[in-house]
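ligand=FE2/S2 (inorganic) cluster
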Amino acid sequence: MELRQASSATELDGATPVHGGTEVVPLLRAGLLSADTLIDIRPIVPRGISRERIGAGATLAELECDPQVPAALREACRLAASPQLRNMGSLAGNLLQATRCWYWRLNWPCRLHGGDECFAQEGEHREHAIVANDFCASGHPSDVAATLVALDAVLHTSTRTLPVAELYRLPTEDNRATTTLEPGELILEVEVPPCDASVYLKAMDRKRWAFPLVGVAAARSGDSTRIALAGVAPVPWLLDGELDDATPLPGNAYKVELAQALVRRAKTALASA
Amino acid sequence: MSNTLNVNDHLYEFHSPAGTTLAETLRDELALTGTKVACAEGHCGACTVLVDGSPTLACITLAHSVGDAKVTTIEGLREHPMVESFVRSDALQCGFCTPGQIVSAVALVEAKAVPTRDEIRHAMAGNLCRCGAYPKIEEAIRTWQD
Amino acid sequence: MARLIRTEKEVEGRYEEVWLVVEEDALQQWPAGARSIVGQPAVRVDGLERARGEAIFTADLRLNGMLHTAVLRSPHAAATVGRIDLTPALALPGVHVALGPGDIPQLEDDCNYEGVAVAAVCADTLAQARAALAAVEIEWTVREPLLDADEAVRRGQYVNDGPRVRERGDFERGLAEADVVVTGEFTTAVVLHNSMETHQAVVQWVGDAVEVHISTQYIWGVRDTVASGLGLPPDKVRVICHYMGGGFGSKNEPDDYTFIAAELAKRTGRPVKCALTRREENVNSGNRNATIQRLTIGAKSDGTLTALGGDFLNAVGWSGWSSSTEGPMQMLYACANVKTTTYGAKINQPPMKAFRAPGFVEGTFGLESLLDELASKLDLDPMELRRRNYADHDAADARPFSSKRLMECYRRAEPHWERRHEVRARSTDTVKRGVGMASQIWYGGGGPPSYAWIRVGSDGRVTVVTAMQDIGTGTKTAMAQIAAEELGIPFEHVTVSIGDSARGPYAAISAGSSTTPSMGPAVRAAAADAKRQILEIAAQRHHLEERVLDLKDGNVVSADGNLSSPLSEVVGLLEDAQILGKGARGPNPTGMQVLTFGVQVAEVAVDVETGEVWVDRIAAVHDVGRVINPLGASSQIEGGIIQGVGHTLSEERLHDPKTGRILTSGLDAYRLPTIADVPEIISELVDEPDEHLTNLGSKGLGEPPIIPTAAAIANAIRDATGADVRSLPISRAEMLRALREAELRAKEREKVGAPAGV
Ligand SMILES: Cc1cc2nc3c(=O)[nH]c(=O)nc-3n(C[C@H](O)[C@H](O)[C@H](O)COP(=O)(O)OP(=O)(O)OC[C@H]3O[C@@H](n4cnc5c(N)ncnc54)[C@H](O)[C@@H]3O)c2cc1C
Ligand code: SF4
Ligand code: FES
Ligand code: FES
């Protein structure tokens, strides 16, 4: 394996970008990712934070305590991962993290790995998705991604500009990818439109340092409120309705009740903010 | 990329192949075994070192990506009063997680000399201790200047 | 004089009849209460080297020419190796030797749980060994695993001879006499030890002897097992462990990795290290097995227990033992009619190992939870219910307790228990608060044999020599305190040398809360022996009678106060000669049951909409006899409680229900408590010596604190919300289920109650 330092955002030459490496390094070592060449993109990805633009290389630790960052995003970062991982991990890397589905992480030949079975659906799925879970039932692990979806953020990449929600796609039989990122495309900046109030609520298995069982991000601008959820679908889930049409698996129906309770609370919090 | 490391203010040349982690290089090549590895995948904090002052998991940091950043391991903090404070407070049992705990704790008090209980719990949540020395760790950090 | 006795030996609640040579324990116990060193808080004698990262754990050993090992383990819960070809591995760079099934008994081709070792490769670096392992060609014939413990019982598939039935009185009659009967099914999940240092060994051959560096709780057990496994006389096996990174019951044996390293070391003529990865650790190094407990309690309306009964199902795994999950029901309360049946189901899952009070942790959760359901039915104060059924001798076999101060524990817990009114009053519409309690019973008396030597040098400094291990419980520190106390010298003048079977006498296992109660008396006896010799010499030097001399604060003093001369002056006469004291652990009191007791009171808050549980505070009061080091003891209590909190709220090993493969082998998915999950912990020890037990009157404290935690929390949750949680861990799913069930019950009651109110 080789490790290079990047000098230009447009010339990655097929190398795998690595920023903080908190995802890339464990995946490589577990054999879930193979790469002949890694390219350290820290020199070329912006890192500064201003009121409306955040460099995609900013770490979660930097976002967590910067007063210019909307409250929900700060909270999502504060409750994500562990202190060391927040020091190391970048915003872009967080948006592109792979699923935590244990079958996937143990390299079972499941649908997301190109196989033809979702082991979680029939198996152990207490942490899995309750909506859009018919093909792959993984629950999206990023607190930050759901929050940016609620905030209606826009990504600037090396090739295009897109709403953050469009970074994600539900995997299908023909295309197992969960993001729309093209090879060689780099996320450079995140634009966060101003809002009047925002909150992030997270339910997890312990008080700190666990992935969201359910995370609820809500943002209000004038009369309009956007709510997005982590942990309930294979991608960050923009809420439309009350989750009455959820399709939980036998072992995770509790998540519907939990999500509904957190959504109610988020709305109340926004109303009083 | 770089095959030198600045560890505890010493400059080391190292020869591990690309893909080797900082923890492996520190322990296996530089014989600095104070940094422990308990999971090797970023889940426990035993391998915590400071990189330019910031607590970092050495087991998932590529050695060649450190460049000229300053690495501080427990060996570089042996004279820090936090070490004494951990012993005084009985903030260790088996001691395997302890170097990592102390490294995180030092970074915390460098940022804020007298952290609150909640600040301690927030900043130390990435350092697991299976022996459950946590209450005494909290105390050691609260009283490190005594 | 040495005496040969036939006696019962208890480890982790299991008994064996053994022959033992014991020496009389002639010393009088010290009077109750803290002394100048024993009973005073002491910082760890080896704290600094551990904290500074200087302590060399097995994981840190780097011997010249040392090779590294990777082990191929069965990825299947039930499978046979069809074909295996090691040659591609041997062709890779750095590889020295590859072993396959049958090369040693620990490598098998018939695998009945995930993680069975099949093949192993050693190479210059670990990366090379892993790469080589990946090149091994292997084909499997996979079988359908048996995973359901109930089904195993139906098929009569047990790890031991069959169900263990223990009965006294007449359970059915007891039920008939009861005014109230409560029943419940309780389940507990598989939890993992997760010692921070994984299981590992470095082995090298020195001539015809073998040297084993190993992270272990039992140097001498490893020595015996390795000797018999390799067909060597035990004195050809040297076992070394100076520092070890946690065990909690999982590191009592050498296991497969030690034998793999030994064989590879033999074939290569080099030191070989074999270390489990965290993933291997969490599949293959043992676990606290899951249980299903179907329990019945009958009582009079005044709370007197008339019948206790239970079916206890231990889902043991493929091997191991069926731990005493019924123990608390048998032993904790006075009840004439008790019947328990315990099944050890043999299933295609990795074997259990002892984990901090095996069986009793699980059994106490069931029993003490159901007892609170009874209390609420009878409208009795739960603490009062327990007092009314207090056992003043071992109810199971009529033996007296050597000492029992549980009533005193209840008394001291009273102020914490009284807080419940104020705690409940702080509830809001969504966050309900409550307080719960649970009692604890367990072994922990230790026993013979165990030996210690004391060496007094001419500088007056003392070394305690014994080949024991300190697994983080601080026994090294406690031994230094005991020696210093008996010798009347400053604590700082004592060094403790442990950790090497070639450099010290036999020492007990560090499991079953037994190190301090087993080793401590031997150390005191050795110190007393050395002291006697010192005083003999001093008497001759100063022309005084021995009986008027004593050692105090490092001085030889006479009763009349005329003599006070530094110890170093007396022993300084010896120049390079030394005084050697020797001591042995005396026998346990005959015909008595030696047990530990305690109570914990938990305060919780429950969010009734999201099922989130906060454990805010746990007060623990335990009776373990004399306390040697109150500082270390409080750390043991906190550690036990925190593991208990994990077991109660977040820890659970999951497996795939079809294949039986373990899914939560990483610490991302297996959730240990973090510092943010820890309640405020208040600990108190009764600290009264057990007058019948040894020259110290001390019992062990490693295990008792983890035992009542789960039940105390579950009972606090019931107090707060009315919900009966029945299943550990109390995940969001379980908490929300219990809350909704309680709501339904409340509605039913209203419906039923309505006509009467009209
Ligand atoms: C143990 C653990 C626990 C965690 N817990 C949480 C949690 O609770 N909540 C949560 O939200 N997150 C959690 N995370 C995720 C964590 O926040 C991310 O791992 C981290 O932010 C990733 O950033 P990185 O810079 O290290 O990414 P890297 O590992 O460097 O990269 C990750 C991926 O992104 C790609 N990439 C990185 N930067 C760019 C870029 N600028 N443009 C294009 N591609 C890029 C890489 O090629 C790679 O595919 C956890 C992670 C771990 C390991
Ligand atoms: S949930 Fe998705 S990632 Fe998990 S097993 Fe199913 S297809 Fe694979
Ligand atoms: S060893 Fe690095 S996080 Fe566990
Ligand atoms: S002291 Fe043993 S793991 Fe922390």
